[in-house]
Amino acid sequence: MKSRDEIWREWQNLVNMTPAELRRWLDTGDSKAVGDTGGKGESTGHKSGKRILTIKDTKKADLTDDDWAHMAKVVGYIKRHTAQGGPDEDKEHSDWRYSLMNWGHDPLK
């Protein structure tokens, strides 16, 4: 298991959208249209994006064990999906990019 220092470093590097950018993104139809909903309406990634905003508004010293666990999950998701490289054409408007953006990472930045 990674240390909190490792999680923090990776989180800082990989979650590259500002809270304002992520908030605006999560309000779009494209954000709401991608990802697995598990039949429950809102996708896992979209829910994660909202949780990321809460974490970003929390001081590091005040993060809970659940926050740290979610941060590790976010880091893992971003690493796995960026490793896929995305589509060969039109990455800008792809579900691959949109899904990553729900998790706080814009691969085109």
From TrEMBL:
<feature type="region of interest" description="Disordered">
    <location>
        <begin position="29"/>
        <end position="49"/>
    </location>
</feature>
<dbReference type="InterPro" id="IPR021487">
    <property type="entry name" value="DUF3140"/>
</dbReference>
<dbReference type="Pfam" id="PF11338">
    <property type="entry name" value="DUF3140"/>
</dbReference>
<protein>
    <submittedName>
        <fullName>DUF3140 domain-containing protein</fullName>
    </submittedName>
</protein>
